[in-house]
Each structure stands twice: as structure tokens, then as C-alpha cells.
Amino acid sequence: MRSLTGPQAMTLTINGDARQVVVYPGETLLYTLRGDALGLTGAKPGCENGDCGACTVLIEQMPVKSCMVLTVEVEGSDITTVEGLQHAPIQQAFIDHGAFQCGYCTSGFLMVGHALSQQPDHDQGRLVEWLRSNICRCTSYQEITDAVRAVCSEIES
Amino acid sequence: MSVIGTSVTRKEAPNKVTGRARYTDDVNVPGTWHAVMVPSQQAHARIMAINTESAQNVAGVKAVLTGCDVAILTGDVIEDRPPLAHEKVRYWGEPVALVVAHDEASARRAAGLIEVRYQPLKVVNSIQEALAANAPLIHERISEYQVATPPAYPKRASNLADEANVVKGDVDMVWEQSAIRVQVRVKLPQVDHAAMEPRVAKAEILADGRVLIHSNTQAPYEVQKLLAKYFHLDPGQIIVQVPLIGGAFGGKATVHLEILAYLASKAVGGHAVKIANTREADLASSPVGMGLEADIGLAATKDGRLMAAKMRYFMDIGAYADSAPRIARAIAAQCTGPYKIEHLHADVYCVYTNHTYTTAFRGFGHMPMTFAIERAMDELARTLHIDPLELRERNALAPGDTTPTQARLTRSNLGDLPLAIDHMRTLIHWNGPTPRVVDDRHIRATGVAAFWKTSSSPPNAISGAIVTMNGDGSVNLSIGAVEFGAASKTTAAQILAEQLRIPLERVFIREEVNTHVDPEHWKTVASLSTYMVGRAVLDAANDLIRQLKDLAATVLRCSADDLDYGNEKLFVRDDPSIQLKFSDLALGYKYQEGDSIGGQLMGRGHFMIRHLNLLDQETGQGRPGPAWTVGVQAVEVEYDRMTHQYQILTAASVIDAGRVINPAAAVGQVMGGMNMGLGVASREVIHYDAQGQFLSNQFRTYRLMRVGEQPQEYRVEFVETPQVDSPFGARPLGEHGVLAIGAALANALSSAAEVPLNTLPLTPEAIWQARRRRLHYDTV
Ligand code: FES
Ligand code: FES
Questions:
Q1: What's the domain range around B111?
Q2: Domain residue spans in chain A?
Q3: pLDDT grade for B778, boundaries at 50, 70 and 90
Q4: In this structure, are B74 and B208 located in the same domain?
Q5: pLDDT digits (tens, 9 = 90+) for B392-431
Q6: Does residue B100 fall inside a structural domain?
Q7: Which terms are listed as keywords in the entry (chain B) (predicted)?
Q8: How far apart are CA B531 and CA B733, in angstroms?
């Protein structure tokens, strides 16, 4: 087994690109993403405790709170951040439905909504269950659920 | 087509859905050092000793500061707060020391090694304990404090930071003569703004003496002024930069981390230093929203005409005064709600406790105040058997009436509450407050509540706008209002586009505010930017139009009065074929021969609040704000009689918006406001234990609304009674969704559960307790 003390050089696959990074074993993925080397600041710190979801990214297409994952755990995994969304329908849907105000929670909600829309099953119960992982203080949540539902049903039809 | 009244997409929308929108902590100067605060582990204690030795020895640590190193007191109104606790601590979480290190990890490690020896003092854990005879004094030197922004009257040898009073008419006589009287006592806990972006500040002192501050403040110009004052600098030396803000709600309008960041940078020779709140610090150490206890007495005639009111409001302001004296005056000035009561006496007290200190919270005191008055109104309706909407309509203030502080009301400055109430009846198919049985367990009830709010500002608040033209005839707009989600930048751009008759896409507006470049705007608070910035933008637009016309008149050899404009052109009114493009003039006009006149065209505009004054100490007489926004809100609940749980079925608002500039954004503001107000009313509470320890310092203990808990349906409507002195008649709107929705929820649940519910938050347990108490009283 590889020893994990001191800085580790590793390759991460982020938004389809192989990126070389040097990380400490105790470093969270959120920290690595936002650091000077990668500069992917779309994922936001809101609590760094798993409560708010502002830091959500996708790991193997599933939403994960990047403040709750150590970078060393995701070497070799496929990581998608909000910067990796290229004209995903969820982005325009958020604009059309007014699903953000300050925008700080938006990256996280976008990632959850996008991942959900790629799932085979996204009925109302599942939608609520997935979106409950994140917090928005500005909107009423109706805008966000409307946007996500619109994208999910578009994909269905 | 007019851009006013059109649902345009906010300017920064594309950046916000791609992760490209940048907030304060997204851009850092490489090599920035980190400051970490050491929070107090006691709510009230004398500091006996602070041992910083082991912290100093941690590799990477550059400086350690304690209260002894910083001999200043700060505060917006009363200067009562040391940036780092000095001699004693007054709340759990109060910054006691500050560690500066190369990196955050070292700073944190060192902060954990600082030993503070405390001698615990008796903790003042509630308003009652603060006001008790022989209560321990939180501020022993209260009488020596400077009042930086009068009025404020700290009371010597007490825990009263301030008191505001309003007296009107002959309350004692009328009270006695009135047929009906109701008395309601409400109790609301402290709550947190919980903006998703925690507070952060960075400071750097350049070699030339200039101080660079980056922070997510709502009040960049206040940061500039106060830092200059506290540290004897010229305001011009201080440059405050604010990019997009991730939610604010009043909690970022006070100067807090900026002071610590400056101190940290100064301690390390001016190096760039950042201090970023963890969520835990953002909740417990930075200011929260006040708690409130109030006694409201209303006297009325048998047919439901309000005659007199006696009110006492006690604010749990926590350990330091911050903006509490100004909030107290806002409560006093609007204490009656939007109702005509000619005889009244209201006292508002700012009570120091050993709780986290408080600052403005969305609505500036009007949300808790409205809860108190609207619970009393519902009790009055119940006592009189009058329909609660009818009672509110009958007593609504009208043009010609005066406010509690005797400001004269006009149709323009008041708006039309009866009209809003009328719309609400239709919007929610109002059938009265009587609950409707769904089945043997469930019952549905609707509650209503009305509000009014003015935007309290200093009588000399200012705003400005600068418009420069690009060579292609498009324009750049510079304003001092920050963007925290209320679309203030987009609204300003809309106003400019409308006035210049150009498409919105031709207006470029910077997301950031820089005090060095952008004209001063008082603070981005009180939902005032549309009014204040909007007026400045109109002024700048008119200035630019004048310049365009003057230059065009010279070139076209006519009088400027002969010219009109549209489609980015100026043309002679009676022969539009004689015309010039904006782009021909923007950077000066070049004649065919090559010689040129003019220069870059730039419009400047400013605005200053007028006709306001400070309230009189005895009677409260005065004019607190430019105009009032009125509205009515309703909540329908389905209540489970067995478990006391409830679902919010509908939340509705009808607000007199004057003129809606951006309908989609306005509806979003109001819906988001309702969700926040319902969160506050149904679940949010800051808990302290018996020793005053702050227990709600994470989002798992300070619980916010999540998806699925929001109302099943929102309904929003606007009526539009223009505020004549505001751009296009628009009224302030940003805060108002929160104001009465909690009261409407309490009114709905009170009728469903058949027990007065006057304490927040309205958890099932709280309802159960209220019912049990009632049962107990009824049987004895
Ligand atoms: S920052 Fe990761 S869940 Fe809040
Ligand atoms: S848009 Fe501000 S927190 Fe969601």
C-alpha cells in the first residue's frame, strides 16, 4: 500500500482532463479544486461540514460533497465540476426559471440537478430527496425544483 | 419596447450558471497569509491571562494579537466593542486572539494552542436576567462610551444600551374609555442571516500607505470611513473592493472582519492577509439577528376601530449595540403597523445580554415587530368576531393620516393597502379564518397579516452614478451598490437603458464595487438601491443626453432644443433624416477635414435623500424614511391535530410595488422572502445553554428550510401605486417578502390549533406545549 504522509503528487481526471496536482493527505477535494493550481472555484465552501451542498461536484456522475472527500480518495475517478458543464440543459433551465439570486448555492444545485436528470428514474419523490442535500437561502426552492423538473421531463420525452 | 416592466435576465446570470461568477474568496493574491481567530469559550468572564507562547512557536506563524494590542472601541452607533476582547469576554464565540500565519493550517494549529485563563462571571442569558435588579453589568463602563452616530442614550449602571420612545395623542384617557382591549405578549429568539457565503475579508497595506480591503460587505463606503476613523487614516487611502456577494440579508452591512483583517495585515508589515469565517464562526462569532419580546396592547371600539395602543418592545441585542439603536427607532417609528392609531405610547429597549451581538436582519426590525402587532390584530379580530382582513382594511392608514412619529402620509409615499387587501381576497379565495375540517385528524386554516416598512436611512444618505460612452455608442455604468442577489446592478442598467432608449445589452455594468472608482452609495441595504441609485442613474443619463445634444447641435448647426434621440441616434425633430449616431459623438466628433471636437462623453449623476430628520428623544416626532411599502400576506396550513405537525399549503403576498421594474426578479425576491420568513417562523432558533454557550453553530443545529419543506404553492401579486419621486414610480421591494409571512403562519396555526401561538419558532412541540398550558389553565 502506498504510504500517505507528506505531499503526494497525483493525477486527477477533472472535466475530462488529466491534471497533475500535489496534495496533502488530509486535503479535501474542495480545497484542491479551489486551490491556486486548479483554480476551479465554482464549487463553494458554505459549511465544509457536509450540511449545505454548495461544494457539490460529480464523481463518476454521482453528486458528492467535495468538502467531505479527501483528494487522495478520488485519484483515478472521473470528476466533473460546474466548469465542466458545457451547455447542459440544466444551466439554461436555471436562468429561465430564475433558480438563483446570489448564485452562491447555484453550482452545487446545478450538479445535483444535472446528475439527477441523467438518472433513469427521477420522479417527484426522488427529486425532492436529491435536492434536499443542498441549501439555498435566497430562492423559494420552487424555482429550483421547477428548473430541475423541466430538464428531467425534457429528457424523458 | 420599454425595458421597464420587462422580465429581463439578470446581467450576471451566464456567469452564475457556469461557475464563472467570482466571489470574494474566489480570487486571492498568491502568497496571501491567513488570520484565524480564537473564539471565547465563555459567555461572560474576566480574562485573567492569555498564553500565546506555544502558538508563537508554531512554524509559519508570523504574529499573534490579543485585546491588549488593540486599544480601540468600535461600533456603528455606540462605540462599545473591542475588535478583540479586552479584559473580559461578553459572548461565547467572541474573538479573543488572532493568529497570522503563512497558511491556514498553521494558523489554525497555533490558534488551538492559545490558552486563555478566564474567571467566569454570572451569565446574563435572557432579557429578564439583564433587566433584573442587581443584574450583573455586561458593560461596566457604559457611561464612558462614545455615541458615534446620535441619537442613542446608553443608560448608566444598567444593561440598557438605548431606549427609543414614541408618544402620540392622549393614550391613557382613550385607553380607559375604549370598549375593547386586547393584550398580547410575544417572544422571538435570535436568528441568523445564514447567507450561504460566509463572511470573509482581506487586507493589504501597500508601501505607499494605501490600504486595500477586499470583503463581501454590503457597506464598502462604511468600511472605508470607519477604518479611516479607527486607525487615523485618510478615507482616500483606503480602497475597498467588493465582487459579487453570496447573500447578505443585512448581516454583511456591519464592519466586522475588515477590522481584524486590517489589524492582522498591520501586524505583519502590511502583507496581504485573509480572514475567512468558518460556518461555525459565521454563526457564533459574527453578528446575528436580534431576539424580541414585546407586550402589545390594543384598544378599539366595538365595531373594530383602533383607538389606542400601548406597546413595549425589548430587543435581545446581545453583547454589543452595533445598529440596534437605529433598529429600535425603526420599530418605534412604525410600531402601529400600517394602521391608524391616534393615541399611542411605545417604548423600545435595546437590552444587552451575553448572547452573540446582533445587527440588521432583512427587514431592519420590521419582521419581529410585525409579528407582534399582527398577532395582536388577530386577537382583536377574534375577540370582536370581525373578519381579520376586514379589520385590517378598516384601520388601514390613508393619505392625510400621520404616522406614529407624525410624518404626513400621501398617496405617493404610502401606497394603497386596502387595494392590496382586496386583491388578496381574490388571490386566496378568502373565506374567513374559520378552520375547515379535512378528516378526523386534519384541519386546514388560513391566516393573514399586513405590513408596512419604510427604509430608515440617515438624513444625508447619498448615491451616485457615472456613465461613460464607448466608441460604438454603448455605455458603461458605474455605481456604488453591491450585488448580493437582489439584481440591483441589473435594475440600474435597466433604468439607464430606458432613459437612453437603448437596448439593455448596450449597457455594461461592472459586477464589482471599488470605492476608489465608483461613486459613493450609502450602503446596499434597506431595499433602497432602486430608489437612490435609480435616481442617480437618471440624473447621469440626463447629463449624458445633454452632452450628446450639445455636441450634436454644434455639428448639425441647430439648437439642442431641436433635437430628439432614439435608436442610438440624435435627430432633428422636424426632419429626422438630419441625424448623428451616438457612436459618431461618443469619443468626440471628427469632421470630414479631420479636425475634431468634444472628447469622451460621460454623464454624472447624484442623489441625496431629502426631508428626513432624526426622531425627537421625548416624542419620537420626525420623518424616518422617504416612503412606505405596504402589503398583505397569507398562509394556508394543513394541521395534524394528533401530532401537531403541519404542512404549508399556500403562501401568498400582495404588495404595493409602486411600479415593478423587473417582474420575474420581483416575484423571485418576494417568493424567496416568504420562504425565508417561513423558515424563521417555523424552525429557526439560536439556542444557548445555561452557561450561555452558543449551541446552534452548524446547519445541522441551526436548521434552515430545505427542498420539500417549502409551501406547496406560492402566489404573488403586485398592485402599482406609483411613488412619484422614485424612478418610474418603483417602491422598495427587496426585504418585504419576509415581513408578515411569519405572523400569517402563526395566525393560521392559532386558529387551527385553537390556541394563541405567540412564540417562535412554531415547532410541533411548541404548539403542543401551548395547547397543554391552555388545557392546564382551563381546568384550574
Ligand atoms: S461546503 Fe460542503 S456541504 Fe457545505
Ligand atoms: S441563490 Fe443565494 S443561496 Fe441560493
A1: 31-123+195-248+252-284
A2: 8-83, 85-156
A3: low
A4: yes
A5: 999 999 999 999 999 999 999 999 999 999 999 999 999 9
A6: yes
A7: Molybdenum, Oxidoreductase
A8: 10
Please say which residue of B608, B636, B667 terminates a domain.
B608
10 Å Cβ neighbour count for B471?
12
Which atom, in ligand 1's list, is nearest to the CA of A47?
4
Fold that domain A8-83 belongs to in CATH: Ubiquitin-like (UB roll) (3.10.20)
Cα-based torsion angle of the residue sequence B674, B677, B679, B682 in order, rounded to the nearest 10 degrees: -110
Please answer yes or no on whether B247 and A34 come within 8 Å at the CB atom: no
Domain A85-156 is classified in which CATH homologous superfamily? [2Fe-2S]-binding domain (1.10.150.120)
pLDDT at A2 over 70: no
Q: Which among A54, A91, A140 is the nearest to B18, CB-wise?
A: A91
DSSP A64-123: EEGGGSBGGGGTTSEEE-GGG--S-HHHHHHHHTT--SS-TTHHHHHHHHHHHHTSS---
Q: Cell 370582536, residue?
A: B384
pLDDT in tens, B498-510: 999 999 999 999 9
Give me the CATH number covering residue B71.
3.90.1170.50
List Cβ neighbours of B762 (8 Å cut-off, separation of 6 or more): B681, B682, B745, B746, B749
Alpha helices in B36-91 (DSSP H): 53-56
**DSSP E strand boundaries for B206-250:** 211-215, 238-242
Cβ neighbourhood burial of B181 (10 Å; 0-12, 13-18, 19+): middle
Check CB contact under 8 Å for A54 and B23: no
Mutating which of A51, A67, A102 best tests the B interface, going by the most B Cβ atoms within 10 A? A102
B645 and B600 within one domain: no
User: Do both B422 and B567 map to the same domain?
Assistant: no
Give CA separation, B83 vs B78, B551, B560, in Å. 14, 54, 57
Question: pTM for this one?
Answer: 0.97
Element (H, E) at B180: strand B180-188
Nine-digit cell string for B311: 406597546
For B173, the enclosing helix (H) or strand (E) is: helix B171-177
- With CA atoms as reference, the chain A residue closest to B26 would be A41
Q: Which helix (H) or strand (E) holds B113?
A: helix B104-113
Residues B669 and B741 in one domain: yes
Report the C-alpha gap between B292 and B171 in whole angstroms. 24
CATH of the domain at B392: 3.30.365.10
